[in-house]
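Q: Here's a chain of 251 amino acids. Please give me its 3D structure as tokens.
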Amino acid sequence: MDVKAYGLTHVGRQRQHNEDSFLVADEAKLYLVADGMGGHAAGEIASRIAVDSISEFILHTKEDDGTWPHAYDEHYRRTTNRLMAAVRMANTRVLEAMRKDARLRGMGTTVVACMADEKTMSFAHVGDSRAYLIRDNHLSRITNDHSWVFEQVQAGMLTEAEAEKHPLRNVITRALGGALQVTPDASEVEIRSGDVYLLCSDGLTGMVPEDDILRIVSENEKLEDACQVLIDKANERGGLDNVTAILVRTL
């Protein structure tokens, strides 16, 4: 299955530094967004370490390599296992960077990544950066946020509407760099021609409702145009955070 992708990031209207990083690696059909956190530009370092580490693992390990440093989960395809192993390796790299430089202590990053094989789009994520599928003019969320408000919604303590405006909506419960071991959530979607996948940081979803995301992507055939309009819309509505979007279309 062939894919076409485009990614774009912007510092937003309120921040001085862009702590988001992203990767579009068409040769590996690998795409990812990382949203860093931490003072003194440490978030930018954490997100870049995550992107570099994941891409290095995927691009420099063979699919049939049996020497991965993490257990193989038989519930998922080999591609998905490679992606989960890469995310775990990225967590180790972020922790190593903090151990070597005290100024980086406390940094962390979210990550959402997808990778395509001939039949399936595999996903792995940690944190509240999201993945969506747009199919048959319908938008569905693939990932569930690792955040305090999402957990409250799942427990029936908050509604979705309340969660969107809650003062603790940016508090995440899982991130790279937050613990010695990290468990990424994984999912798999059967590929269909014409599908569009969106990977994004919460700088987009915090500013642009899902209905508007669907409309913008549907109205802009070129992925470059759709990414630009998504980011412009987030900035028009305040641009409170860095905003990053990758769109991937299956052909």
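Q: Can you summarize the key feature?
A: The CA atoms of residues 64 and 240 lie 43 Å apart.
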